[in-house]
Amino acid sequence: MKKLRYTTLVCIVLPLGALVGVSPALAASDKCHAISAKGLGSATGPTTTTARITGGGFLNGTTSGQFDQPVGNFSGTVTFATSGHDTLVVPVSGNLDPVALTFNAVGGIASGTGKLQGSSGSLAFAGRITDPLAGTFTASVTGEVCLAK
Do 68 and 126 fall into the same domain? Predict the structure, then answer.
């Protein structure tokens, strides 16, 4: 009976000890999160937008975008305001094709607040203008956000 308990203890404790030895590496990888979200938005002016983000986990909430020009190659900033009251700022560069009614942009994370403070990573935005007269669009947001905390 003592031998069985000792063997059981060794079989349980040794693997747990091995996990503790690698836990910092596991914890570091747990801080990075793949993002695959959807956006539904509209133009609020010639070079500004707003969108509702869903399916993005901790990025769910809204975005506001400000860009240097409405069509063709552009640069600007997309700011996420999450449901958890955190923000994430992503400077982007991209292209809006007025004939195909599609757009894409990419950017690295510049800053964040709350639990997103100190985050790093990059996001890509790809979408389609669904109603040019109303200025509505759908978008996908993909990439990786690595939390500092």
Answer: yes
Structural domains in the chain (count): 2
pTM over 0.90? The answer is: no
Question: Tokens 């590496």 — which residue?
Answer: 25
In the predicted model, is pLDDT for residue 102 greater than 80? yes
CA dihedral 85, 89, 95, 99 (to 10 degrees): 20
Parent domain of 15: 1-30
Question: Minimal CA–CA distance to 143: which of 57, 71, 74?
Answer: 57
State whether residue 69 is helix, strand or coil. Answer: coil
What's the confidence (pLDDT) of residue 149?
76
Identify whether the C-beta of residue 128 lies closer than 8 Å to the C-beta of residue 108: no
